[in-house]
């Protein structure tokens, strides 16, 4: 059964919407008081305003070209905390790469790329 939606609590919905929409360039589907929904491909992201900062699990955003995505996010003001690096090489030569950055509430997010030989 595929995952359809992830919920993430945010302190300030206006600021969070700007970060996800403008800094990350992710399409906003719709919003109404206290909630905003974004298109993460087959999974929808729901941001829910709580008025307080929460710790959260890391969300890994897939990209086919991690170096370009890293550069683009940096140019748009995302605070990158590391450069793209290979985290694993599978026996068939497929490589998995990651680069970490912070969201508007100083929580971890990551870019993830699978590079096939």
How would the global form be characterised?
Answer: globular
Ends distance:
29 Å
| Rounded average pLDDT | 94
Using only CA atoms, what is the Rg?
15 Å
CATH third-tier fold name of the largest domain: Signal recognition particle alu RNA binding heterodimer, srp9/1
What is the number of helical segments per DSSP (H or I, 4+ residues)? 2
Which structural class is indicated by helix and strand composition?
alpha+beta
Descriptive notes:
A hairpin with a 2-residue loop joins strand 2 (28-32) and strand 3 (35-40). The chain is an alpha+beta fold. Helix content is 18%, strand content 44%. It is globular. It has two helices and nine strands, in the order βαββββαββββ. The model has no long low-confidence stretch (mean pLDDT 94). Strands 5, 6, 7, 8 and 9 form a five-stranded mixed β-sheet that branches. A four-stranded mixed β-sheet has the order 1-4-3-2, with helices on one face. The protein starts with a strand and ends with a strand. It has two domains: 1-54, 2,3-Dihydroxybiphenyl 1,2-Dioxygenase, domain 1 (Roll); 55-117, Signal recognition particle alu RNA binding heterodimer, srp9/1 (2-Layer Sandwich), CATH 3.30.720.110.
């Amino acid at each position: 059964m595929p995952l359809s939606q992830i919920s993430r609590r945010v302190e300030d919905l206006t600021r969070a919407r700007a970060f996800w929409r403008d800094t990350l360039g992710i399409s906003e589907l719709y919003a109404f008081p206290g909630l905003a929904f974004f298109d993460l491909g087959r999974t929808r992201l729901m941001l829910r305003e709580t008025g307080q900062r929460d710790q959260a699990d890391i969300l890994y955003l897939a990209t086919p070209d991690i170096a370009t995505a890293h550069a683009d996010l940096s140019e748009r003001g995302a605070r990158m905390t590391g450069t793209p690096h290979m985290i694993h090489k599978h026996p068939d030569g497929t490589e998995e790469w990651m680069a970490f950055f912070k969201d508007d509430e100083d929580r971890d997010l990551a870019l993830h790329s699978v590079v096939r030989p």
